[in-house]
Design goal:
Elements (H helix, E strand, L loop, with lengths): L1 H4 L1 H19 L7 E2 L3 E3 L2 E3 L2 E6 L9 H8 L2 H4 L2 E6 L7 H6 L5 E5 H9 L4 E6 L6 E6 L14 E4 L6 H9 L9 E4 L5 H4 L5 E5 L3 H7 L7 E5 L10 E6 H6 L1 H20 L1 H9 L9 H15 L14 H13 L9 H4 L2 H7 L2
Length: 353
């Protein structure tokens, strides 16, 4: 069964290898280009085009980026930002390596896998500071302690997304290869609703509230917090290709500054920012109520209690070390990650000056 755990990951690795070959055969010139001039005041100002690739479809998970565009923070930095939606068939790292996007949002685990496979990608800022993952079970399943997951069906997303769940299982004294049946989770919560699994994975900003919005009460659930268990992996991070950063350091700082400013604005002005998000979502794909809840929860991950505005986007060494250790322990990466090379801390530091 353990071989099937890695099947999704192998698909990702193969796609990234193809991206690396394409990148090696292409020119590595900076992809940022001057956009059409726009008039401002008495003179025309030329804006630099920057393409930003999201890891998923438009939603409040990316509220800070949409707020930065709507509030003119990109334009203030001389940037014409194009925000490119993601989706189930879009590999963010491939988009950035091939120059289809200049910067992108991906998970730290996925960044580490990409670097382990030779892709020259770096993080410019760490957007989320805590894991959003929860494991949830219906009270009727009788799982009040993680040890009671033994012999149960536990579902999670595959690819590179299952490893913090496995780390949680192992930390609680169970062998994830033998003591549970790991089930591939879809993009809906139907398996959980239909009792096809005993335990499901849910992000606190999305699937968990999908369950509550279906009519399930919080009192009907047993919830296990992976972050509080000490095995959470960092998620959304801002990435770029290393040679793009080297050739466009000032631009990289400006993009990062605008996005971080956008996130602080979004967190402090949530009602208005949800309006911005709703103007970008696909009609009928979500509700305003759901996006309000999503932004409330995302804000707690991006600017958690004790964080100042200036700390938004910062690199917490302990969290990165834990993420890299889990990735190595479960074979997500083959060699220990060089975090000094993976994190372009100077870009963040310059952006928040």
């Amino acid at each position: 069964m353990y071989k099937t755990l890695k099947s999704g990951l192998m698909v990702v690795v193969l796609m990234l290898a193809v991206a690396l070959l394409a990148a090696c055969s292409a020119k590595t010139e900076p992809s940022a280009e001057p956009a059409a001039a726009s008039s401002g005041g008495d003179a025309e100002q030329s804006l630099t085009k920057v393409k930003i690739q999201l890891k998923w479809v438009p939603q409040a998970q990316f509220a800070g980026i949409y707020a930065a565009k709507e509030q003119g923070f990109f334009e203030d930095e001389g940037i014409d930002a194009e925000i490119i939606p993601g989706g189930p068939d879009i590999v963010i790292e491939q988009q950035v390596v091939n120059g289809a996007a200049d910067v992108g949002i991906t998970g730290v685990d996925s960044l580490l896998v990409s670097r382990d496979n030779g892709l020259p990608l770096v993080s410019l800022a760490q957007i989320s500071q805590k894991s959003s993952y929860r494991l949830i079970a219906k009270k009727s399943a009788g799982i009040t302690d993680p040890a009671q997951m033994k012999g149960k069906k536990v579902s999670t997303w595959f690819g590179s997304q299952q490893f913090q769940v496995l780390a949680f299982i192992e930390k609680n004294g169970l062998d994830p290869k033998k003591d549970i049946e790991l089930v591939k989770q879809g993009f809906t919560m139907d398996q959980f609703f239909n009792d096809q699994v005993d335990v499901a994975t849910a992000t606190i900003y999305n699937e968990y509230h999908v369950v509550l919005e279906s009519g399930v009460q919080e009192s009907d659930l047993d919830v296990f917090n992976i972050e509080e268990a000490g095995v959470g992996m960092l998620e959304d991070t801002l990435i770029a290709k290393k040679d793009w950063v080297d050739g466009n350091r000032d631009l990289a700082v400006k993009v990062t500054r605008a996005i971080l400013k956008g996130w602080n604005y979004a967190i402090d002005n949530q009602e208005e920012t949800v309006d911005i998000v709703m103007s970008n979502v696909t009609d009928g794909s979500t509700t305003r109520e759901h996006q309000v809840t999503m932004l409330e929860e995302i804000a707690k991950l991006i600017r958690p209690e004790g964080f100042t505005e200036q700390q938004v986007g910062s690199f917490v060494d302990e969290s990165f070390a834990r993420t890299a250790d889990i990735a190595l322990n479960y074979g997500l990466i083959k060699k220990a990650a060089n975090l000094d090379e993976a994190l372009e801390k100077s870009i963040y530091e310059e952006a928040v000056k």
